[in-house]
Amino acid sequence: MSTPRVLAIHDISGVGRCSLTVALPVLSVAGIECSVLPTAVLSTHTGEFEGYTFRDLTDDLLPAAQHWKSLDLHFDAIYTGYLGSFQQVELVKQAIELLADDDTLVIVDPVMGDCGELYPGFSHDYPAQMRSLCALADVIVPNVTEASLLLNRPYLPQPDADDIKDILTRLCEDLGVCSAVLTGVSLTPGTLGAVSRDTKMGEMSYSSAPEIDGMYHGSGDLFCSALVAAIMNGYSLQDASKVAVDYVAECVQRTSKAGTPTRFGLLFEAGLVDFGRQFHKIY
Ligand code: PXL
What's the Cα-to-Cα distance from 200 to each of 103, 139, 175, 180, 196, rounded to whole Å? Predict the structure, then answer.
């Protein structure tokens, strides 16, 4: 099998273990070529850090996509994450339309908020714009905050089984996507994980691990990168969700034990080689 090529469209936050500093190692160790379209370069992510720098790369997005188009490159997947502005979402939609062919899986992590709040810097019309990007996706991977913003429904900190089913059904039906994975939810006390809904397979499936208190920056990015890595290695959505939940849970446990400030993200490096090894690709 040839090496799958995934185009990751995220920012680079220099410090804080999120977006491309997570997607690149996780996809590479899983035997996937990770091409990148950086949307912005920041000194840190925007959560729990102040005074960060922000170099906007909006003007470079379409020219880079047009260059790849002229090279006739094929991407097996396009994976989008944090996008710096309303306008960037529009340009990323155009880049997807330019670069995706019938064999390109489009995975959108609609990064825009957590704990019921939009991240700093996003305007109130941003969720509607993100919704139009999700409409181009095969798989979307929101947390509960992002799902609520996409569906314009009140945020429920702890949705129950009926709420989760309703959220996932509406995400797929209203947004017109085939599959959705809702992260940061619990169906049994003391556990936390993700529920996936694959319209083709019909069923919803819960993958979970024992819950550890705390909010760790970049955990959504680690989850989605691990999910993409597993999908591109041929795993079903359900099995890929399990792989991603297990890896994030192990990293949360390690980080909690080490007591590192949560804004520095998850200590994923120590488990990276074993994460890649499970795909029997490069070790
Ligand atoms: O982890 C998501 C993320 C990615 N990139 C930037 C962010 C955040 C979340 O706060 O600020 C720049």
Answer: 17, 12, 16, 11, 12
